Amino acid sequence: MIQRAPAVRAEIERQQTAEIAAENRAYCEKWGMRAGTREHVACALDLDELRARHAKRVLVASEGPISEWGRDEDGLR
């Protein structure tokens, strides 16, 4: 089982990447930006940035109040 861990991790990451891409596609198209357009690409990049900032906030929150010092208004360093 341990020997398969890298392959399992890679498969999980592949699945998550596919899920996120599908979500991006669905939301951007819902907002009127058709796949294959510059607007759609910009929308997907914005969603990726939004997810990254949220993940950082969750990490900061899990570290506790002392770790809040020195962070900007978005909770980032």
Features:
single chain; 77 residues; mainly alpha; 2 helices
Radius of gyration: 17 Å
Q: Write the H/E string, N to C.
A: HH
User: Separation of termini?
Assistant: 38 Å
Helix-strand category:
mainly alpha
Uncertain stretches: none
Number of helices: 2
The main sheet comes to: none
DSSP strand content: under 5%
How many extended strands?
Answer: 0
* Proportion in helices: 55-70%
**How would you state the average pLDDT, rounded?**
88
Label the overall shape: flat
Give a structural overview.
By secondary structure, this protein is mainly α. It is built from two helices and no strands. It has helices at about 5-30, 40-65. The termini are far apart. The relative contact order is 0.09. The mean pLDDT is about 90.
Secondary structure layout:
Elements: H1 5-30, H2 38-63
In short:
The protein is built from 2 helices and no strands. With 77 residues, it is mainly α.
